[in-house]
Amino acid sequence: MPVLQPSGIVNGFPRYNIAMSQFTQKLHSQLPPTTLWGYNGLYPGPTFEMRSGMPVTVQFSDSLPTTHLLQGAIDPTIHGSESPAPFVRNVVHLHGARILPESDGYPEAWFTPGFTQTGPFFDHGSLYLSQ
Questions:
Q1: 102 vs 48, 50, 57, 105, 129, CA distance in Å?
Q2: By C-alpha distance, which of 113, 95, 115, 117 is closest to 104?
Q3: Is 101 in contact with 58 (CB distance < 8 Å)?
Q4: Terminal CA-to-CA distance of the chain, rounded, Å?
Q5: Mean pLDDT, the chain, whole residue set
Q6: Backbone Cα Rg of the chain
Q7: 52-83 per-position pLDDT tens digit
Q8: Which pLDDT value is given to residue 55?
Q9: For position 69, which CATH number holds?
Q10: What pTM was computed for the model?
Q11: Which of 119, 37, 120 is nearest to 86 (CA)?
Q12: Residue 8 lies in a domain
């Protein structure tokens, strides 16, 4: 996967920009392109390379559709999918890094594009996110 480069510095920390969007990608040479949701037009997403113990800021922008790819197949009785939570919401989780718990994909810390709706445990102050 491509290595993501910082786009600038925020409060002394390198800032990385990640765009969440829908796109198509071939997942196998013998299959047609598949519609996916991912980061910076990639699945599984770009790679961060950084020094251990050095904090960074990640700025997310969200241009995902408001209708879920699996809209008719979502079981509304499963924890987290019940109303009033929208079908399309974001919970960001990074792999392979030490992330503060409040910034690491807590299921009820979701947000929608532009932060028009947020989950009960979403804390904008604990994350650096932007629309």
A1: 20, 21, 14, 8, 13
A2: 95
A3: no
A4: 25
A5: 81
A6: 16
A7: 778 888 888 888 888 888 777 777 777 766 66
A8: 81
A9: 2.60.40.420
A10: 0.76
A11: 119
A12: yes
